[in-house]
Design a protein that fits this description.
Layout lengths: L5 E6 L7 H13 L4 E5 L5 H12 L4 H25 L3 E5 L2 H11 L4 H12 L12 E6 L2 H9 L12 H17 L4 E5 L4 H14 L6 H4 L1
Parallel strand pairs: 1-3, 1-4, 2-3, 4-5
Helix pairs in contact: 2-3, 3-5, 4-7
The structure holds thymidine-5'-diphosphate.
Length: 219
């Protein structure tokens, strides 16, 4: 018998510093004897990576943007996420649907009811009313002014990274709203701190749930 799969997503505005912590968590899970699938959205499959190129770089209207995000997500769920969970793997996914609500919904002002409908279609579980949702969403909460300073020294910005600070204020509010709607699913990490302290908070969120214990010990 393999352990139950775990679906973990990571969110935050651009510049919030998710990447190193995702890599460190992958190591921690592997050290505990778990199989880890590291993936990201938009992307994670050949088709979804093509859609990522388009949606991050080509101008388009907000509905097209939302549809492409969910089209990429559908392929990703079917090809990668659901099979990995069925095998008992730990899926660490850099962004998921909360990003669509925060960026397309709150950031761009796109109709939240349409997003909710797309979420139901794309994440609906066959034969039930349940939606596939993460077991835990780690939200790296960083003030947009701090993120802007960090991004200023980064690479060439994409269509989202080049947005003004006011856009990221709305995105951050969008994440807060998503957390209010499902507080038990979220771990909010105060990210305006040195990296080592942010990592302590992240590790604690997983240790608290008993998820980093060696698999044998839980049998
Ligand atoms: P990001 O994780 O920032 O990738 P990278 O670190 O390689 O730049 O994600 C790319 C961008 O996509 C980010 O600006 C947020 C945006 N995005 C949305 O607008 N909606 C979505 O549903 C997702 C998944 C991402």
């Amino acid at each position: 018998m393999h352990p139950a799969g775990l679906f973990i997503t990571f969110e935050g505005i651009d510049g919030a510093g998710k990447s190193t912590h995702i890599a460190a968590l992958a190591d921690a899970f592997r050290a505990a004897g778990r199989s880890v699938a590291l993936t990201r959205e938009p992307g994670g499959t050949p088709l979804a990576e093509k859609l990522r190129e388009l949606v991050l770089n080509d101008a388009m209207d907000p509905l097209s943007e939302a549809l492409l995000m969910f089209a990429a997500r559908r392929d990703h769920l079917q090809q990668v996420i659901e099979p990995a969970l069925a095998w008992g793997e730990v899926v660490l996914c850099d962004r998921f649907t909360d990003a669509t609500f925060a960026y397309q919904g709150s950031g761009r002002g796109f109709d939240l009811e349409v997003l909710r409908q797309l979420e139901r279609w794309v994440q609906g579980q066959p034969g039930t009313d349940a939606l596939r949702q993460p077991d835990l969403t780690v939200w790296f909460d960083l003030p947009p002014a701090v993120a802007a300073q960090r991004l200023a020294s980064a690479r060439v910005p994409d269509r989202f990274e080049s947005q003004p600070q006011a856009f990221f204020e709305r995105v951050a509010a969008g994440y807060a709203q998503r957390m209010e709607g499902a507080p038990e699913r979220f771990a909010r990490i105060a990210s305006d701190q040195p990296k080592a302290e942010v990592w302590q908070q992240v590790r604690q969120a997983f240790e608290q749930r008993g998820w980093l214990q060696p698999t044998e010990a839980r049998a």
